[in-house]
Amino acid sequence: MDWQGQKLAEQLMQTLLLAFAVVAFVAGYSLGSFQMMLLIYAGGVALTTLITVPNWPFFNRHPLKWLDSSEVDRHPKPQPVKSKKKPTKQK
């Protein structure tokens, strides 16, 4: 899953969970059943999980371009910079 796919999955998850929460609340209120509200919301959570958790092909529309193995030798890994600390005065 690429970066744009992660963003899309997050947006889908938030939208679907909010929509199912509203539908569950309205259905539970109109039917007067707390149990029905919870069942509808639980079904929405399960459906949202099935849509957003697997790595579906539409989440990978912008694949990352990795550095070719032949290019690795031409671009060495940067070395950490050593800081020059001033000596502390001891009393």
Provide an overview of this structure.
The chain is mainly α. It has a domain at 3-54. The protein is 53% helix and 0% strand. 3% of the residues are buried. Component of the signal peptidase complex (SPC) which catalyzes the cleavage of N-terminal signal sequences from nascent proteins as they are translocated into the lumen of the endoplasmic reticulum. Dispensable for SPC enzymatic activity. Keywords: Endoplasmic reticulum, Membrane, Transmembrane, Transmembrane helix. Residues 82-91 have a biased composition (Basic residues).
Percentage of residues in DSSP E strands? under 5%
| Elements, N to C (H/E) | HH
Query: Structural class, from secondary structure content?
Result: mainly alpha
Measured between the Cα atoms of the first and last residue, the distance is: 58 Å
- Percent helix range: 40-55%
Taking all Cα atoms into account, the compactness measure Rg is 26 Å
Q: Per the principal axes of the C-alpha atoms, what is the gross shape?
A: elongated
Average of pLDDT: 86
Count of β-strands: 0
Number of helices in the DSSP assignment:
2
Q: List the uncertain runs.
A: none
Q: Characterize the main sheet.
A: none
